[in-house]
Design brief:
The complex is a heterodimer of chains A (376) and B (290).
Chain A lengths: L18 E3 L13 E6 L2 E6 H23 L7 H9 L5 H35 L12 H16 L3 H23 L7 H24 L2 H12 L7 H28 L3 H6 L4 H23 L5 H13 L6 H21 L8 H25 L1
Parallel strand pairs in A: 1-2
Antiparallel strand pairs in A: 2-3
Chain B lengths: L9 H7 L3 H6 L8 E11 L2 E11 L4 E6 L5 H8 L7 E6 L2 E2 L5 H5 L2 E4 L11 H6 L14 H13 L15 H14 L4 E5 L7 H16 L3 E5 L3 H7 L2 E6 L2 E6 L1 H4 L2 H8 L3 E5 L6 E5 L4
Parallel strand pairs in B: 3-8, 3-9, 6-7, 7-8
Antiparallel strand pairs in B: 1-2, 1-4, 4-5, 9-10, 11-12
Helix pairs in contact in B: 6-7, 7-8
Chain lengths: 376, 290
């Protein structure tokens, strides 16, 4: 569906050719077009130069937006003051408090949430072989929200309970959606259709939960449902960060298997991948990633859908760019949060409102583009 | 494209490997690197897709499986490449059950070209062929000099070195199929299974692909292919396996096995058989149904 621009990689062969760095330099172009290899002893890493360049830009972008978020706010803070706060030498204790305990955890939370959502989206889009097979479209996000809402509304639970609720909700929803759409092998479009249906139902359940909740809990639930990084604390960030680190290790372990499975399970099995096992592990990891993001920030919509699309278009890769999707997700969430914080200052919007608006526009554009392309 | 000059005939075969003909006659011949014993596969209850199928794949032979649609040809091939687990029976690779190996170990010995391989249009031939190196790579060993060499060797064996920078959508059907075969070649497996490699190709491209496959066989690889075109199958194969309704009807050298009655039984097709004027192999002439 998403047309990768591979055919239009305009350069002639010579300018885009690969080059081997280090030992074992063979024929020109021997690592593939636009690829470079770094070899150190038995270790050899191959990467796309364009992809690497884009990732460096994304990191710089995240750093720039983060810095801007530290500086901009109702309480104006200068660059020197930020540096001083980092060093622990700030004279103004209020400045140090805003930088270190209010704005910085919020930014780190945004980076973590964005990365988790981006990777989760890329995983599901690859595994379902469908650009719309992203957790926010196929109902998983709604399911995780249902789990979290039950914890908030029924049990008045805290941070850890909320995470567990979101994970349980996400897993149950995924099991339900896959169970209903499974039909002799990979579900494909059925998955998306069933997922949209289940998601709509769960959306109604979520509203019902809020309506039936006691007033205090309902207020908290509504605030949480909009998706907000407001009031992120270091404790929450550390907990989420630790879990995400473990999940990232799992993804690294299965990264190559995922690349092989992007062309269908059969051809992956031929190459020696335990496709069934890898699929289960990666789906579980994807749900965990999404649920952790949601428990930290609420259901921030569309990032999981959009981040993998954008990175594929920019890097012009046909593969699965997980690191790129993570960085893109982070950049989207951190920038959206800055916009949400300042656009109607001093009133704050929820970051989910901004990502939702941007993502909605993107989805319309994507569908319109696809529709035109199919008619041609 | 001309027919292979060294058309396989029994004496020629025996010159290459004296055990091959014998291997076919004794299904559980332990000389075969790859054999299946008593396979049963079913997708639903009381519905055997394979029913007690035993087959020893002759080492260094060019085996072609033929049979009517849905007779279990592809299923048998998938079992041999451990893509399907049989309900009963075993597939033995180099003396051990195929399930007892690490998957990547199997992938270094058996390559398979699936029936409808699928890849994004934008991928270059080089990148697709490079995927065949997966069983030799790891997270820290992503692209060794051996990988590089194997990919170039595969491209040159498939005679598509000059197409390596082209994307799949720029290639003809026959060229594309050669890229897929090159990907399987980059896997550097002694055994190569091909599931209907010529389907959807026009006659010239079919010959192109079969000539390539035959060249691989001549290099010493063990080839097993599922083919639909009987006459091409008989022309290229050193061994024919005829299947019907999940069972093997007959197997052996095309000259000795292929008879009018066998083809009639396997395909429910009245026919007559003459000698192929080019290769002197059996040529099936279908008769009209009335």
């Amino acid at each position: 569906m998403v047309k990768h621009a591979g055919a239009k990689r305009g350069q002639t062969g010579s300018s885009g050719r690969g080059r081997s760095v280090g030992t074992g330099c063979g024929q020109t172009g021997s690592s593939g077009r636009g690829r470079s290899v770094i070899r150190l002893g038995a270790v050899s890493l191959r990467f796309e130069r364009r992809g690497l360049f884009v990732m460096v830009l994304l990191v710089l972008g995240i750093l720039a937006v983060s810095l801007a978020s530290l500086l901009i706010g109702d309480y104006g803070i200068s660059f020197d003051e930020v540096l001083a706060s980092f060093m622990g030498t700030a004279t103004d204790r209020l400045v140090a408090f805003f930088v270190m305990d209010v704005r910085l955890p919020r930014i780190v939370a945004g980076i973590l949430v964005g990365a988790a959502l981006g990777v989760s989206g890329a995983l599901f889009q690859t595994l379902s072989d469908n650009p719309l097979g992203s957790p926010d479209i196929i109902g998983f996000t709604k399911g995780a929200a249902t789990g979290a809402l039950v914890v908030i509304v029924v049990f008045s639970g805290g941070t850890v309970a909320l995470s567990l609720g979101a994970i349980a909700g996400g897993l149950l929803t995924a099991a339900l959606v896959y169970g209903l759409s499974w039909h002799r092998g990979a579900p494909g479009y059925r998955l998306v259709l069933v997922g949209i249906g289940i998601g709509a139902t769960l959306g109604a359940v979520n509203s019902l939960l809020v309506v039936k909740a006691p007033l205090g809990n309902a207020e908290m639930a509504i605030h949480w449902m909009a998706g907000s990084l407001n009031a992120s604390t270091w404790n929450e960030v550390a907990l989420t960060g630790a879990v995400l680190a473990v999940l990232a290790a799992v993804v690294c372990w299965q990264y190559r298997a995922l690349g092989a499975m992007a062309y269908g399970d059969d051809s992956a099995i031929v190459l020696g991948v335990r496709a069934e096992r890898s699929r289960l592990i990666l789906m579980f990891t994807g749900i965990m990633l999404m649920s952790m993001a949601i428990s930290l920030a609420g259901p921030i919509s569309f990032v999981a859908l959009v981040a993998p699309h954008l990175i594929k278009r920019i890097t012009r890769t046909a593969g699965t760019a997980l690191v790129g999707a993570a960085l893109m997700g982070s950049l989207l969430v951190v920038s959206s949060d800055l916009v949400a914080r300042r656009i109607f200052a001093p009133n704050e919007l929820a970051v989910g409102v901004v990502t939702g608006s941007l993502g909605g526009i993107y989805l319309i554009a994507l569908l319109a583009f696809e529709w035109r392309r199919r008619r041609q | 494209m001309s027919a292979p000059a060294d058309n396989p005939s029994p004496p020629n075969l025996e010159a290459q490997s004296p055990k091959m003909v014998q291997a076919v006659s004794a299904p559980a011949d332990k000389q075969s690197r790859l054999y299946a014993e008593g396979l049963y596969v079913s997708y639903g209850p009381d519905d055997d897709v394979l029913h007690d199928v035993s087959l020893a794949v002759p080492n260094g032979g060019f085996t072609v499986i033929i049979g009517a649609n849905a007779c279990g040809k592809s299923t048998l091939l998938k079992c041999l490449a451990r893509m399907l687990r049989p309900r009963k029976g075993a597939v033995i690779l180099d003396g051990n059950s195929i399930g007892s190996y690490q998957p990547r170990e199997v992938a270094r010995r058996i390559g398979l070209l699936p029936q409808n391989p699928h890849a994004p249009d934008g991928i270059t031939a080089f990148d697709l062929v490079a995927r065949g190196r997966y069983p030799y790579q790891s997270l820290l060993r992503q692209w060794s000099p051996a990988d590089e060499e194997a990919v170039w060797k595969a491209l040159s064996d498939a005679r598509i070195t000059n197409l390596s920078e082209r994307t799949l959508d720029e290639l003809s059907g026959g060229q594309r199929q050669r890229v897929w075969i090159a990907m399987a070649l980059a896997q550097q497996t002694p055994i190569l299974l091909l599931d209907e490699p010529t389907t959807y190709l026009d006659i010239a491209h079919q010959i192109e692909v079969l000539d390539l496959t035959h060249a691989l066989y001549r290099q010493g690889r063990t080839i097993v292919a599922v083919l639909h075109d009987l006459n091409l199958a008989f022309r290229y194969a050193t061994h024919i396996v005829v299947m019907k309704e999940g069972k093997i009807l007959a197997k052996g050298n095309p000259h000795t096995v292929v008879r009018r009655a066998l083809i009639e039984e396997a395909f429910n097709l009245r026919n007559t058989i003459i000698d192929d004027p080019v290769s002197a192999t059996p040529l099936v002439i279908p008769l009209m149904s009335r």
